[in-house]
Write a structure and sequence with these properties.
It contains 18 helices and 19 strands. It has 517 residues and is α/β, with parallel strands linked by helices. The chain folds into 3 domains: 100 residues, Barwin-like endoglucanases (Beta Barrel); 209 residues, Pyrimidine Nucleoside Phosphorylase, Chain A, domain 2 (3-Layer(aba) Sandwich); 82 residues, Alpha-Beta Complex (Aldehyde Oxidoreductase, domain 3). The strands form 5 sheets. It has a 6-stranded mixed beta barrel. α4 packs parallel to α6. The protein starts with 5 loop residues before the first strand and ends with a strand.
Amino acid sequence: MTGENEKTGPDSDDGHRSATDVLLARRMGIYTQNEAIVFMSRDCPICVSEGFGAQSRVRVSNGKNSLIATLYQTAPGLLKNGEVGLSEAAWDRLQMEEEETVRVSHPRPLDSLSNLRGKVYGQRLKTHAVKAIIDDVVAGRYSDIHLSSFITACSARPLDHAEMVALTDAMITAGSRLHWDRNPVVDKHCVGGLPGNRTTPIIVAIAVACGLTMPKTSSRAITSPAGTADTMETLAPVDLDIATMRKVVEQEGGCIAWGGAVKLSPADDSLIRVERALNLDSEGQLVASVLSKKIAAGSTHVLLDLPVGPTAKVRSQDSARALSANLMAVAETFGVQTRTIITDGRQPVGRGIGPALEAHDVINVLRGDMDAPNDLRERSIALAGSLLELGGAVPAGTGVKLATQTLEEGRAWQKFQQICEAQGGMREPPKALYSRPVTANRTGKISTIDNRRLAQVAKLAGAPDAKAAGVEIHIRIGSKVSAGEPLYSIHAEAPGELDYSLDYVAANEDIIDITET
């Protein structure tokens, strides 16, 4: 497996450099998400002698590990002579200790950049070229500028089938891979873009209660108000290592864990983070992203939910059909049985948008509460029924009936509680201290809901970092409302975040469109 850091070894140049490049590492306490950043004074002798400038790429080594980082320069005096500052990401990846020194030097040239440039100019990426790029991404050798170039090239010059297969394979082999002594091993994934669509915990509970094996690894949010792992974390621990994950699956038949803890397809988060920042959705990278994680997790049968709507990730039926064809063709190459379902993506699913609010919806559906959101319940049953049929648990056409019975009889709720306990204990999702309704400015009928901007409201309120923050929806498309009636409520853990969100709402009054009747 290729790790995020480079290990020092015989090919390292550490043993051939003078003591003048040795600097005392200082933990700056600066969070840069996943990007390794180092800080050096502009008048530092190493910067002067090596010709380092702002945003240079540098190699940093402490004798145990090394990484490639982006250099930022500071004014004289901020760092002492002989010091180098490290961001939290750099500190953690180097496994630094206090009062430890590092060496800073020029990195080796990145040969894979020639492959990237070839793609920019219209050349097809061969298998070895894709592998070289992904290996450098996982090792942290690519800056965000390099990553954005790769993503842009793959968007402007779409990947063909062979390139998608090569990218999927490279992303699988660059990380850990799980193998199970059971068959089938099922999984379900939604391509995203639909706030509150938290069907996964419900589907896992139904599928496992019906005898299928479902070791579900899920993502945390990157640019959304909540990922499945964020929501599940308000109910039970999700940071499971491979040994613990195996134990839970052997005991209960399934789990709902954070995929980052087991390092499946580790290049994916880096690519998605920059892709979303650029607002580019490369279909080839989406296919590789989804399937690499499923295959790396050991899945043999995968159900894919493709929501379609004007403000969802997939905007049209034609786009959904093209994406479906690519997903199934690449999956077939790897021997994975796949089924895609095109669903309604015009509006959020459930009432909650944000980790804890979505968790409350999940619990309400599993317990069979009278006020549980019916759209989340019906969507979960439909998808679970299809997964039961795909996994061979029931004959074709009978999956929905079994999924409904499993939910109504309480077996899914019982299984979910057992999974939570096996993962470390079930807990109660938090509730926000502050809440404010957003009301209709006129009487009429709800005609459209902007998924993206409503998600932004939840993020400005603090989600997903503030687990209780987010948006609670009170209406659906087609609902009749009166002027002054609440459309949705904003939940926040701090008054400042509530104000940020309300300011955004005031500037975007058409997030929910009301047609006068």
